[in-house]
Design a protein that fits this description.
The complex is a heterodimer of chains A (about 650) and B (about 625).
Chain A lengths: L1 H10 L6 H8 L7 E10 L5 E11 L2 H4 L8 H10 L1 E10 L4 H4 L4 H6 L4 E8 L6 H15 L13 E2 L12 E6 L6 H9 L15 H5 L3 E10 L11 E11 L15 E2 H5 L12 E8 L1 H6 L14 E3 L5 E4 L11 E6 L11 E4 L12 E8 L5 E10 L1 H4 L12 E10 L3 E12 L2 E3 L1 H4 E7 L8 E10 L4 E10 L15 E3 L3 E9 L13 H7 L2 E6 L3 E3 L8 H25 L2 H14 L2 H14 L14 H26 L1
Parallel strand pairs in A: 1-10
Antiparallel strand pairs in A: 1-2, 2-8, 3-4, 3-7, 4-6, 5-6, 7-8, 9-14, 10-13, 11-14, 12-13, 15-16, 16-22, 17-21, 17-24, 18-19, 18-22, 20-21, 23-26, 24-25
Chain B lengths: L1 H8 L1 H15 L5 H10 L13 H23 L9 H13 L6 E8 L11 H16 L12 E8 L4 E4 L25 H12 L4 E8 L7 E4 L4 E6 L4 H17 L8 H4 L8 E10 L7 E2 L2 H15 L5 E10 L8 E3 L4 E5 L25 E9 L7 E4 L10 E4 L3 E5 L15 E2 L2 H18 L7 E4 L2 E5 L8 H32 L7 H22 L3 H19 L2 H4 L6 H48 L1
Parallel strand pairs in B: 1-2, 1-4, 4-6, 5-18, 7-9, 7-12, 8-16, 11-13, 12-15
Antiparallel strand pairs in B: 2-3, 5-6, 10-11, 14-15, 17-18
Helix pairs in contact in B: 4-16, 5-12, 6-8, 12-13, 12-14, 13-14
Chain lengths: ~650, ~625
Amino acid sequence: MARLLSVFVLLVFVLHAASESTGELVEQLDEEEFTEELLFRPLPDRKVLSHFHFESRVPPTNSYGHHHRLFPKAIYQLVHKYRIKEMELSFTQGRWNYETWGGFDPVSSSNAKPPGVELWAVFDVPPDQIDASWKNLTHTLSGLFCASINFLESSTTYSSPNWTFQSLSANLRYGSLPREAVCTENLTPWLKLLPCRDKSGLSSLMNRPSIYRGFYHSQRLHLTSGEFDPITSDHGIVLEQTLTIVLQPDALETRARKLQPNWSMNSLFGKTVDGKCALSKSSNVYVQLEGSLVHNMKHEGDEGFRGNSNFEFSVSPDTIMKEVNSFHKEHSTILYSFRIKDSHINPFDLGFKWKLPVTWSCVKAPLRVSRFLMGSGNEKGAIALSLQSTEWSQSLPKVDHNEEKCRLRVDVFQIVPWYIKVYYHTAKVYVDGVPQSFGDTIEKLSVSPSEDKVSPGVMEMSLKLPCDLKSASLTLEFDKGFLHIDEYPPDANQGFDIPSAIISYPDFQTRLQYKQDNSSIKSPMVSKMQEKRKILSYTEVLLVPLTTPDFSMPYNVITITCTVFALYFGSLMNALRRRAGEEERLLKEKDTKSGKLPLLLSKLSAKLRGRPWDPSTSAPPSSPPKFISSKVILKIVLIAAIGFGWQYYG
Amino acid sequence: MYSKLNTELEGPSMAEISETMGTESSPTENNRNENSETSIFDHKTMRKTKPGLKRLTLTLTVFFSFLLGLPWLLKSVEIYRSPLPFRDIDSLSNSIDLNPFLYPCKFHVVFVNLDHSTPIKSNAEELGFLVTSHMLRFADGNSFCGTCENNYTVSVSLDSADNCVEHHEADSGTAWRCGALSEFNFDDTLKNEEALDDYLESVVGRNRVYTVVVVNTGEGDRIRAVVGKYRHAWIVGRVSEVDMLAEKAAEIFIKIFVSGLKEEESIQGEFMPAGADGKIVLSFNLLNADPRDWIYDWDFKEVDEKFLAPTLEALSPIANISVESQVLYHTPKSSYSYWDAEQESHVFSTKDLPFFVNSNEWHLDTSIAAGGRSKILQFVVYIPSANECPLRLQLPNGEIPVTNGFISPTWGGVVVLNPPNCLQNVDSIHPRKVSPQELNQIFEVFMGQLRQLFGLKSTGFYKGTSGTSVLLTSARGFTEWELDVLARQHACYNLRQCGATLGSLSRLVQSLPRMIIKDEIGKQVKFSLEAAKLAQSNASHGIYDASAVSSRHARSLAEDAFFHPSVMSVSYYSFEHNFAVYSPFFLPLSLHVILAVVKEIKRYKQESRKYAAWKAVRNQISD
């Protein structure tokens, strides 16, 4: 463990001053506060990440009362009605590209979210009331954000992770809806929680067509409250709203394809900022350049404040913050900050212009994770989770100081709906293609199997993989269950989604520490970056096709079974009732008058002609051999017909 | 098994056949008689043995067991329905419809020093009749839900220096302490009417009796009628004509104390009920039209404690009222205003009012804390932006009202607050606070608006047929007699609604025989009926506020039952569905069974006839 810790010391950007940052967090407020911030970061694949960050804080109720100036009334009432300690709700469209957009920095590990809606909440209520609170909360949120969050009400859709997702908390509930579509009707209520909405300030940049055209769009609401906790009761409620968008700037100048595209606020959003939101305490725009980008840029001559030989800003930044305590000195990121004033004479339009071509890559998560389905058919299949090494894990030391093998810890949290019946005993772990024994690789495992129509299957697993691995994979076999006819969604043929699994690396923590001069206004976003946080990544959503029944089936089944029963009952009834002897005698009596066969034939012909049968017109008796031959012919014809039918329809 | 059964069953006829065959082959002595029988035996129309009953019993058993099984089947597919007290519901709604409940109202008139200067020697009884007759005239055509109609008692006290006469129509529990007013100095009452009001309260303030005290001071040329903030009024001045006094007292009783200054049955339009769950949420909003010009803030906590808390406590029998507040920004109004040089302000007229409230930008929102059926009243303080700064409302007659606000019935009220010296371009964006004086004014206006929303007038006087009466106001915003009026009206309205809701629930339940009714609904209906009965009995005892409270419970329980989620769910299968599910089995089956029964009965009858024929023949022969 000590060895591990030393690895951790090497990897984590900064370790010291943990107490400082926590001290900042629990700082006592005596006023409501609202801040708005916007972060831009050029991405290696010619795209630009824009990250809006709004934060509202309110002092605790017992000292401040329950009438607010800035804090949204709806959220305050929500927190108090359901006694929420912490809650996060995200609406996401598109998938975060961990490969090229990075997976290690604070922005990506806290703002990359699974597609659709994800909601988790920690309640401060007795354990038996948590589920009721959760259900009411989902309904309220679905009303508040115009989304079908109320589908998370059913106990088959949410679960309570024990240890992988968050810190040990029994009061946590987690649920996600992968198929929820996200659009403006979700953004508008989210904007309503901001004091300036999108009327002024940075949020006025949110031009709907441009932000929904992006490659990734994630709107997040995170709130923490210390209202009910006697220890942190001076904490109040903090509401953090972020909007993360990945946009592709229009490369107007085709002059140099090698150059990264230049961009400005106006070219990205089609709007500019007139001035800060009058209610916000501070309003800042940041441009973050990643360490490897800074490293790859040519450093020649003196760096001007407006830029250097590689790039240029259209507005000169107010402050430049360099990352401190970075492991690689030359890999430290730079943050340029621009303060937005109350009103600008010219609209504020930050532009970024490249002068020299440069390529770089983002800091990736320790492992590249993907999840896929195996097997075919509608009966069974397998889920596979594949972990590939990245540069990060390759840079890990193979062997530690004490000649002990270095181990990489990976936590997996996966929720599977009950109709995917996962056999957890079939779990197999492969490292570099070699099957591993359970004891070697799995450190901790807790599984709660699904219960039909009651609860989903939850798997929490802590893997211990060797640091020098190339690839590892985890497979689980499953059977596809059958749903009740009422449980199929309207588009049953589309298939069913398995929500994203969450992969976290408990040994690594990400943190960006910037040298901040005390004179500048403390920025919530920068202090958020300085918080240590776990690296999380979400896998793909899986789409499982299930057998789709013919929905008229129940009636068909009813009709067939009832007919069979009715036939059986009818024949039994007849068998009990019919007088075979008497009928035979009657027939014999008639036989004395005429032969059996002509009688039958005449009856048949009469029936065919549709006339009442008259025994007098019956044909004279014919010879028995002919009768036999006709019977044989009849049989042959019948067999031929059956054969033909079999051939034709089979 | 089958064949064995057959032989057994067909025994008689088989035997019959062998018998007939045997007679031919071996004639014996004994058969002589039989021979003659066989000669006339025709096996088509006769039989010698009794027809068997086994098969008939079998088919009939099957048939009847099916018939017996039918109720069992119906029982097994039955849907659980909690028994609802339909009869009680009907009787409740009938009783509410027939006599919208009548509160007993007690009135008391006190004449002080009447015989001082009047020539007429009036006795108490005559005066009582006089007042009653006037009241009948006033009450005529002025009886809506929540009034006393004819259910009142009038008692009269005569108090003069030397003797005291009291007349009670019934045991009304009123008593006037003789000479109580003799020590009170009426000379300066015009100045301290509040003091007189409180003094009278200490003398007569008990027992929910409405009192009018007529004091003859014998001086001054006009009389002054004042209605206090408790349950009494007084008429002071030189009394010349008793009839006029009686009319005035009767008018105060009927028009003010009973109907709360309401004219005729305009109640439907003006009356604002509490929410279906008996709750009202007062949502106060401070709207900064443009925070770039100025940002206003208020000290709502203080207002909440100082102004609102006493009022809400006073209104608590009528509704459970909660208060919340918020400050919103970037909320322009959506109507036009124009610059009026004469008024030196921007002016919007009354015809613009429907467009003043900008529902697109004013995110006043419903409250999460309140339930879905609560009544939400929005009160808005609108702070105009710099380019529309002194913003004033202009009445159609060109006047500028002092309040600078308006109400929208059942929605709430709006007050425009103009920032001081907004014409001078003050360029300070720092948050300013609404000053306590302004806040005082605003909340006085809001209180008036709230009274108006409840259907009360706040003019301060009442102009009746017999002169003007002055109405004193209470610091709580609502006087005792006004609260009585509101309590009566709300109780009446709530009970009517409760009756209507329960009535429609019972109709719904009866019209859908396959709807599931949970026990919870049954319980809610039961409790609702109990609360309604309690409200009625409280009303008949004249306990207005308790009656209002229990009527509120009755209504909210009835609404809960009606809007219970299980009623809404689609757990109701149509008859066609049942038919489709059961017919494939029962239709062919019943055909089999019925046909078998018919055939067997027919056959049995036929065979019995044959046997009867044979018996007849044999009897003939033996005879």
